[in-house]
Amino acid sequence: MSNHRSVVINGDLGSGKSTVSVELASRLNLRRISVGDMYREMAQRRGMTTLQLNLHAELDDAIDSAVDQLQSDIAKSGEQLIVDSRLAWFFFHEAFKVHLITEPNEAARRVLARPHSEVENYSSLEEAKTNLRSRSESERMRFLTRYGADKYRLRNYDLVCDSTRARPGEIVDLVQAAFEGRLGADILREKPPLLLLDPMRVYPTREIEFPAPTGEVDTPETMEPLTIGHSGPDYFVIDGHRRLSAAVQSGLHLVPASLLAEGEEPVTGRLSANDYFRAHVTGPVVEAWERLHRIELPVPAHNPPGVHVGH
After folding, report:
1. Average pLDDT for the chain
2. Using 50, 70 and 90 to split pLDDT, how confident is the model at 52?
3. At what angle do helices 50-57 and 35-46 cross, to 10 degrees?
4. FRET partner for 152 with CA separation of 20 to 30 A, picked from 15, 144, 234, 269?
5. Mean per-residue pLDDT for 248-271?
6. pTM of the entire structure?
7. How far apart are CA 211 and CA 230, in angstroms?
């Protein structure tokens, strides 16, 4: 191992952070701590669901104070750990910070497939999706109010990885490679985060006439990184359309990328990432990309003007 930092992993329910953190701890022979387990035990003791506990925590600072103080104390101990927590990135200042993202329907399916318990029990996919969204937003508002920390801001992290289609073992391989300096070292050193994105969920910003030819299939370790913008939960390619096209055709689960801009950060002198997304991810561009690659992209979360809504 090339360093002695802890690795902290966050992501909403269904993102796979527990599975990834357990396997990574085993591979690196490090102790694992799960703050989610602490919350579930606390909810069970109070006769609540985890969503109810999260909502209650918005009114009772003592709940967050106890958990957050524990995380802060653990971080100050200096022990090298694997930490599964949605806020550890804020307390573990020197840690390698991993953020897992997942398509909401897939996250809901995973949570719904788990054994029912007193603290997490959903009767339908839509109920699971709605509750996961509510819980995530509840947590986000608490973190913003309490610490001014936005869990959705990608620059809080060293590595952002999409777990929608990638297998847990595949993700662990890449997290370990990045942690040990074998993947994305330049991006991690100069301007993190390193992004590992599902090419089937990245939007084009211009039309290409022909799909990129595929010969020898690249891997995340060998592929030249794309240049990416981020608007809300959506990702769009600014440079690297041909590489993205080849990745889609080759069936890659993940492609490496650097983040040029997110939210109101500038892509060009006059367009922020949000503005660039609205201006360039248009109906004709998206539809041409879908026809060319015989795929369907998810409907953009913000549904900008001109983007199709028929899926």
Report:
1. 89
2. confident
3. 90
4. 269
5. 95
6. 0.89
7. 24
Homologous superfamily in CATH for domain 7-156: P-loop containing nucleotide triphosphate hydrolases (3.40.50.300)
C-alpha distances in Å from residue 220, one per residue of 19, 199, 215: 21, 11, 16
Which residues on adjacent β-strands are paired with residue 202?
235
Q: Which two tokens stand for residue 23?
A: 């396997």
Three-class DSSP category at 39: helix
- The confidence band for 166, taking pLDDT boundaries of 50, 70 and 90, is very high
Residue 281 amino acid letter: V
The residues near 83 (Cβ < 8 Å, ≥ 6 apart) are: 6, 7, 8, 9, 21, 32, 33, 34, 35, 71, 74, 92, 95
CB atoms within 10 A of CB 233: 14
- Among 165, 2, 146, 164, smallest CA distance to 86 is for 146
Tell me the two tokens of residue 259.
């983040």
Domain boundaries, the chain: 7-156
Q: How far apart are CA 243 and CA 248, in angstroms?
A: 9
- Which residues does residue 7 pair with via DSSP β-bridges, in sequence order? 82, 96
Q: Is 208 exposed, middle or buried (0-12, 13-18, 19+ CB in 10 A)?
A: middle
Residue 99 is encoded by which pair of tokens?
């953020």
Please say if the pLDDT value at position 309 is more than 50: no
Lookup: tokens for 4: 């002695």
Q: How many helices (H) and strands (E) does the chain have?
A: 12, 10
Question: How distant is the alpha carbon of residue 129 from its chain centre?
Answer: 16
CB 222 within 8 A of CB 255: no
- The strand ranges marked E within 6-124 are 7-10, 31-34, 81-84, 96-101
In this structure, what token pair is assigned to residue 148? 């001014």
Q: pLDDT of 202-254, one tens digit each?
A: 999 999 888 767 667 788 999 999 999 999 999 999 999 999 999 999 999 99
